[in-house]
Amino acid sequence: MRLEGKIALVTGAASGIGRQTAITFAREGAQVFLCDINEEGLQQVKAEIEAAGGRATALKLNVTDEEDWKNAARVVRESCGKLNVFFNNAGILIVKPIEELSLDEWNREMAINSTGPFLGIKYLAPLLVASGNGSIINTSSDAATFGFVNHAAYGASKAAIAMLSQVAAAEYRNKNVRSNSIHPACCATNMLLRDDEDIRKNPGYFTPMGRILEPQDIANLVLFLASDESANITGAKFAIDGGETGFSIGMPLETK
């Protein structure tokens, strides 16, 4: 098992990428703290992990609430004394043109997608240092790499977490704590899934490889970054987008 004996904490664990990654962590031997504002969803994930023989603790957490973060750190410290893996994943998506985006919407996106990850690192870093072998994985986005129409708040918030990730890598370089960011394209999660459309069949959501990302695709990358297999990787940005940000498949230049 690739995470045998490790303690992990996952935010946004009640659904989507967080849920699938938490299940993957547990399957690979980690004891997982499941954090989300959705308590019912947390209990469902916890039950699924335990039914498969894994170990999980459900912990209600509003990532914008500093006291919730202090409490999460306290719970982990009192029960385990350390933390090996922090998947800093919770986020929301607001899609609106700049002129239609309210200040409240902008602030909410920033609070959840940028301030939350900052607070998580601030309060969990001492536990990661205490483990002697810590890994922070921050969920950014392809929208942090180039501009998408109607994604001003989302793109800005995800660009912020990408830089936060690199700064954390620099600050904890001598404390055996690594920090990396992942940059997914559209993924088939509750954030995008709709009752009136099967987005898995809509080419508008496809990567250049011809399909949409699934949560397990991303969980596999996060597992690698959480494991000792990536022991010398820090401060890096990992695109997981089927080549979207790596190359163009536009019309070829005319030849004379």
Automatic annotation (TrEMBL):
Ranges where the Ketoreductase domain occurs: 6-190
Keywords: Oxidoreductase
Gene3D superfamilies (UniProt xref): NAD(P)-binding Rossmann-like Domain
Organism: Ruthenibacterium intestinale
SMART domains listed in its UniProt record: PKS_KR
InterPro entries listed in its UniProt record: KR_dom, NAD(P)-bd_dom_sf, Sc_DH/Rdtase_CS, SDR_fam
Family indicated by similarity: Belongs to the short-chain dehydrogenases/reductases (SDR) family.
Identification of the protein by name: SDR family oxidoreductase
Coiled coil start-end: none
Highest rank taxon of the organism: Bacteria
Pfam (any one): adh_short_C2
